[in-house]
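Request: Mind sharing a record?
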Amino acid sequence: MKKIHIIGGGLAGPEAALQAAALGCQVVLSEMRPLRSTEAHQTADFAELVCSNSLKSESENTAPWLLKQEMRRAGSFLLQAADASAVPAGHALAVDRLEFSRRVADLIASQPRIEVRREEVTSLYPDDDVITVLASGPLTSSPLADELERLTGAGRLAFYDSISPIVDAAGIDMEKVYFAARWDKGSADYLNCPFTKEEYDAFLDALASAETVQAHSWEMPPTDPSAVSTSPPLAYFEGCLPIEEIARRGRDTLRFGPMKPAGLTHPKTGRWPYAVVQLRQENLRADSYNLVGFQNHLRFGEQARVLRMIPGLEHAVFLRYGQIHRNTYIQAPALLQETLQLRSHPGILIAGQLSGVEGYTESIASGLLAGRYAAALARGVQPVPAPRLTANGSLSHYITHADAKRFQPANITFDLLPPLEDELRRKVRDKKERHRIQCERALAAWDQWLANSAQPIP
């Protein structure tokens, strides 16, 4: 049996390593931190969550729920760690970041078939005796990204992603905020900071005049490494726009985005506030909260000035300010098979955000598939891709079949799954019922695929 070399200790890499090892393969897991860090990571831990602590919705029959259900049925190790380190977050799965990383590290340490190497990998040489899974993430080091370009003959792409601020719970004025769940669904796990119209207008004016950070050379496209200006605008990921960028699109855009008050009835007034900022518990001790959807690219001093205009955060102590980082991904439709293998070098698989999936859960899912596919290849068997009907299969289908010239990273949505047949669509008018049917079909197809692709464990 061939050995498997996995590069990257983020989310996709550890999941791939644990999957392959559980299937009887010998795995080497390489991670360059702490020998060399990145511009966004703060630790050398496995599975560090850089942006937020949320793995998205757990509401039944939603697309993120479907993806996680498929992963749980396949025995996702990182989802087990996430479930065990969950913090209150309403209908979302959010985790204590440090506890989550600790549990992932324990899983890796307890697996005798995984050898961890703290090293920077800069060369990719196709080897008939080794299956390689490249899961080095959106912050892949320049030497390794250059090596991937050399190997594939294709340039890399990039978008710009942001990180939300975190505040100390002790600095929140609890007399001005209130716990509530949107539309009173589930437990009231989010702290809500309510705005009047006057407070919102003043906040928006301050945000518009705030000074942003000039992009560093490492953030700029490789075609212009000397540039340090944010003009023209950076190519942000639409699903994670900085608040100042959202505000530029109109005075009410924030009120219909991360500051949407709908369904958040204030207990003192019995009405919805004009706008609201939600705070989500950051850890199990509940001693810190992150500002949901408040990623930004403002200077730290400006963040403190503007964000302390949020009702209840006038004396906020910031444990982490919002930041921006450049995310690299490959032109997957031109380079990858549905089994995540490079078309030109099928012994090398690309997983995680480097492949063009976007989001924590999607990255873990990609690692799960890559680990299973790599284990099959290690045995000399060509893997069968996940079914198109499933969330996992549809995500892989998108990144490998999208228009290569217009390719953008994607989260899991129902738009990626095959639609219902016309006759059934006409019969079933309710969108929620359509989604329920899609989920039912997906899980049935996923279970059948798992049964058919089961691999003997030595």
Notes: Confidence is low (pLDDT under 50) at residues 216-232. The chain is about 30% helix and 15% strand. The chain has two domains: 3-156+330-452, 163-326.
